[in-house]
Design goal:
The structure is a homodimer of 337-residue chains. Chain A is of the alpha/beta class and 337 residues long. Chain A has helices at 10-17, 21-29, 36-49, 55-62, 78-93, 108-120, 133-139, 166-179, 198-209, 224-234, 248-260, 294-308; strands at residues 67-72, 97-102, 125-129, 148-152, 161-164, 186-189, 218-219, 242-245, 270-272, 289-291, 318-321, 324-326.
Amino acid sequence: MTTVKKQATISDVAERAGVSVPTVSRVLNQVVPVSEKRRKRVLAAIEELDYRPSAAARTLASRRSRMLSIVTSNTSRYGYAETIRGIELAARAADYTVTISVVENDDAAVVRRAVTAAFSQSPEGVIVLTFDPAGDATLRSLPTTVPVVALSGARAEGVPQVLIDEATAAEELVRGLLEMGHRTVHHITVPAVHGEDGRTTGWRNALQAAGAPVPAIIEATWDPQSGRAAGLALASDPGVTAVMCGNDEIALGLLRGLADGGRRVPQDVSVAGFDDHPLSSLWLPSLTTVRQDFSELGARGVATLLSSMTDDTEDGALQTLRPEVLWRESTAPPLGS
Amino acid sequence: MTTVKKQATISDVAERAGVSVPTVSRVLNQVVPVSEKRRKRVLAAIEELDYRPSAAARTLASRRSRMLSIVTSNTSRYGYAETIRGIELAARAADYTVTISVVENDDAAVVRRAVTAAFSQSPEGVIVLTFDPAGDATLRSLPTTVPVVALSGARAEGVPQVLIDEATAAEELVRGLLEMGHRTVHHITVPAVHGEDGRTTGWRNALQAAGAPVPAIIEATWDPQSGRAAGLALASDPGVTAVMCGNDEIALGLLRGLADGGRRVPQDVSVAGFDDHPLSSLWLPSLTTVRQDFSELGARGVATLLSSMTDDTEDGALQTLRPEVLWRESTAPPLGS
DNA sequence: GTGAAAGCGCTAACAC
DNA sequence: GTGTTAGCGCTTTCAC
């Protein structure tokens, strides 16, 4: 055992300060006034004993856990990690603690386990990252005992939601590429949610609106290496002059794959990503992409939850964040146009 | 309010199943045997009521929270995020929940707040990521009521620790560069811990052992753009033929800065990073780097904590992880050698 | 302002 | 095996 002294309790503090337990509680929660003299004594005792209130006891007695649960399939990839960072920051500012519950995939047992883990902490609200099938499946099987908000790129139903309007941004991106003179734009997707993600919808809409051919979708995994493989494959197809990728990691892999296959970017092929990954502007060529404010997404999620804990927010309320297309070196008009 | 029904409690379940509360508890914890007949009834009641035990009440009654706290300055950068992922995975496998407490910097008040947040959850153990000054300062001000483990790249004292032996890997890297014919190797650091990080130590040792000049250290921030700025600055110095960076993001930025300044990699300048970031092998040229197994680091941290909760582990026990140098395209002998 | 008493949802100790 | 009784560390009445 590496432990040493025991953690002090509220009654240790009360005893040392010569006051009753509820008085210590009042000092801690500073809502009911306490005489200055006693307050000082209590504060001193807290300091001397290095007392820290037990969140468990507080939760049990007050029925308020000051906890928010995040349910997500991933914690470390760029978009996910930034969203979580935004949530944690906003939660901390509001004096809430965050727990994360990971759903590896959309298997029913896995989802159930994650939901149980999330709810056993008695969270006052739950944030689900519905960027993928696992998150999406979780959203569909959540108890309704507590406010929930979904954070995503595609529309869900019946649940308050903060959405990054990827569809509009993707449309703008594809339209821009077509206007440069590309005959069409190919599309590589990351693993999709239940239906179709906003990026794909926007891509198809823009192509159809312009009367451009709609090529078959190429599916990648979350691993950037799958982008490289796709690039190598596409390099031999002269009909491919512009590609939009589901995220920047895939796009960066694609860049490498195209180079391996002897194609120059942007002279032979234009490439665009999605997310504005911190490394995307440093690549050679720098990557055209869509900036998504993930940490703002997280912050809005927290704000939504906190307000729905007090107000009477209507179900299914939708907030939209507008991403921004960043034109950089990896896109250009096709040769000979 | 978006909430609907109330969460069922253990006595709701007991009543519905026609048994006493402790019997339900026994079924839940499956340590004391319960007759098959009653067990079935209890399980059915749990299912029907969608009952989930309250972690707070369990913690309070059993004095076991089944929680582990992570204290870290950052949650989203590659090394941190991967370490956290490794911790979460190992903790979940052992049926522990993880809370994260963020210390933005090493300011005393900030540290104190983070420590309080971490300990108020009554964690059974605390994992501190001491990759930087904030984590390092936290480690120095932790109560000793609970087992603690530090995860880092440089040696700390008096605390059980899992260390990635960066120093040895950095030494090997620098030695390799010198053997290629480089006169010396420059070094760009990320914000350092209390003393000096293992990478810097290894770098200096290798230079001194070879009798090579030890250039002034160049300091970067965590932002990859600072690597780009450094690259632009170094591009005009013909004495710079090899550079080792504190992490891959900085190295990737450096690559871009050198290119902006008209230097070719690896012909004019060799560049090496640290971490084996998923994008480092896709870059053009692919980046020579040091692979660190962050998720293993996290897993070992959890294992250490769990064992020190039962065994009598000696204080200050040290485990070492051996990183691996990956030689790729960004390093080569200097021109004319 | 302040203390006494009750109770949050569970587990532990003890009887049977 | 099973129920009864206490009690975990707090907050919340309710008197005074």
